[in-house]
Every structure is written in C-alpha cells, then in structure tokens.
Design a protein that fits this description.
By secondary structure, this protein is an alpha+beta fold. A four-stranded mixed β-sheet has the order 3-4-6-5, covered by helices on one side. A two-stranded antiparallel ribbon has the order 1-2. The protein has helices at about 30-40, 75-85, 90-100, 135-150, 160-190, 195-200, 205-215, 225-240, 240-265; strands at about 5-10, 45-50, 60-65, 105-110, 115-120, 125-130.
C-alpha cells in the first residue's frame, strides 16, 4: 500500500487539500473551508491523502451533519438523502447521531482506486461520486461504522503480534460490512431496496448479502433476533472471502512493518484476548454477537496474498 498512499504528518497538513471526501447533511464547503479543517490544530495523526485538490473537482462537495447547507448542489442533496434514509433504521440513526455529535465532514470525490474511506486524523468521511445512490449509501454506512469503531477506541496497536494486527483489521472490516448489510436489509424491509441492490451489485461485497438473506430465509424480515443471527452470518461471510482476506492481510502487514520501522519498537508475539473486541457488540450497538464471529488469530499474518489467488471473488460478477 505504500505505493498507493503518500504519508503526511499532521504538522504538514495546513495548506493542503484532500480529494475524494464524502459528506452528509451540512454546509457545502469550498476550498477555504476545507483548508480550515486541514489547518485545525487538533489534527495530530498521520493521514493519507490523494495529491489532487478537492476544490478542483466540480462535482465534489462536502457537508457537515447538523449544519445548514449554504449552497445546495446535486451532490449535497444526494448526501442528505442518504442520511435521511439512514434515519429510518435503528442502526442508521446511531451512525448519523455519532457523526453529528463529532461534526464529521462528509465529502464526495472522484477517486480511481477507492470507493470510500474514513480519515481519523481529519475526521472526514469520503465516498466515490461516480457510484449510483445505493452503492454510495452502502459505502457510507460501512465507513460511518469505522467512525463509530474509532470513537469506541479501536485502533491498530503494536502491543500485540503481527497475527493480531491482521485479525484486528479483519474484525473491523467484517463488523463494518456486516452492519452495512444489516442497514441495507432494514431499508429494503421498509420498502426501499436501493441500498440492498447496491450491495448485491458490488463484487466481493455481495457475499455478505447472500449470507444475510440465506439466514433470514423463511423468517419474519423484521424479526430482530433473526436479524442478529443474520448479521453474524454476514460477518462470517466476509471472513470466508479469500480475496478480501488476502487484500487486507497485505495492507495490514505493510502498515505493521511500516509502524515498526517508524517507531523502532521491538515486535511482540503476544495475542490479544478475544474479550478486547467485546465493545463492538455492547449496548447501545448490540446488533449481533460479535465475539461468535471472531477468527482464530494464529497464522493470520502469514496466509495467502492477492497474487496467490486466481479469482477475486466467491461470487464473480456476471
């Protein structure tokens, strides 16, 4: 991943602009407003950025939940519609409320390599503006769950082994995708199938949808207990996707080795107890039994890499 990203320390951020940022409900922000966010003194973490300016994209837009939209555009309208749709589900309301409480910046941007991501250093959510509504909403839910994870205190750590570093990534990604799948199901059950259709249209993501729908077969689509079990099944489906495992293993190991090199710390071989992940499924976010979905940690840091696999999905797109 070092070839894909350029690392910039927080003290070098002022004056730069980030491309490809996702927004949800708030003031449409132009270059100066983005510069102000980038220059905030409380930005202390290393961040990843793409070397083109957000202001140069005429389709790009940013909003902040809870703030008025000064200059509405089709992009800001779309982002507000995504948040309004989320508000119709219990999980979606939690995502929106957390983002509102922390004034998370949501932006759209054109990016050739990522569908979306959440930048902890800048508190920015980013989503590709070339996707259709359902896909954008799905990625928004996924990345907003990463925001919630971060607010819970979940961050990668060299306190544990290379295997645990990889497991941490797997758990966070499976959790985010399983809960985005839950949101897609709940909005479909309420009569709006766009997010579900977006889920099923994205290669490697549809695995979680297939698992969720299979677990719900023959059951009341609104039954919360059944949805809990189906969400757990979706998390396990993410874990069983060999391509996703390989991609995120490669990314995690690269970051792990970079962090060891940067900090000059001595590596440890200690694994974390499973209970360290328990807050993911604690109230108020008790949407599934997350501990039942944890992968075994031993050997996770030494499995297949992307170049070892011949096909990218368990369910290839037609």
């Amino acid at each position: 991943m070092r070839r894909l990203f350029q690392k910039i320390s927080s003290r070098h951020i002022a004056g730069l602009t980030l491309p490809f940022m996702l927004a949800a409900g708030g003031a449409a922000l132009a270059g100066p407003a983005l510069d102000a966010r980038l220059a905030e003194e409380d930005i202390k973490q290393t961040t990843y950025w793409w070397p083109t300016a957000a202001r140069e994209n005429p389709r790009g837009a940013c909003i902040v939940p809870g703030d008025p939209v000064d200059t509405p555009t089709p992009a800001t309208d779309n982002l507000q519609k995504i948040l309004a749709l989320f508000e119709t589900t219990a999980f979606g309301r939690q995502l929106v409320q957390t983002a509102t409480d922390h004034k998370t910046l949501f932006c759209t941007y054109e990016n050739p390599m990522e569908r979306g991501f959440y930048d902890t250093g800048l508190n920015m959510m980013m989503v590709h503006d070339g996707m259709e509504f359902g896909q954008q909403a799905l990625i928004t839910a996924h990345e907003l769950r990463h925001h919630v994870q971060y607010r819970m205190g979940f961050e990668r750590s060299l306190k544990y082994s290379r295997d645990e570093y990889v497991r941490f990534t797997y758990v966070m990604e499976a959790d985010a995708q399983a809960l985005a799948t839950l949101l897609a199901w709940q909005t479909r059950a309420a009569g709006d199938a766009r997010v579900w259709d977006g889920l099923m249209s994205i290669e490697n993501y549809r695995d979680t949808g297939v698992a969720f729908e299979t677990a719900m077969a023959g059951k009341d689509p609104l039954d919360e207990t059944a949805q809990r079990d189906a969400t757990a099944a979706a998390a396990i489906a993410w874990r069983n996707n060999q391509w996703l495992n390989a991609i995120y293993r490669a990314q995690s190991i690269d970051m792990y080795l970079d962090e060891l090199d940067t900090t000059k710390k001595i590596r440890t071989y200690k694994n974390a107890p499973d209970e360290i992940y328990a807050p993911l499924c604690a109230k108020p976010g008790d949407f599934y039994d997350c501990l039942s979905t944890l992968p075994k940690v031993e050997g996770l840091g030494y499995g297949p890499m992307p170049h070892d696999l011949k096909k990218p999905s368990n369910h290839p797109a037609p």
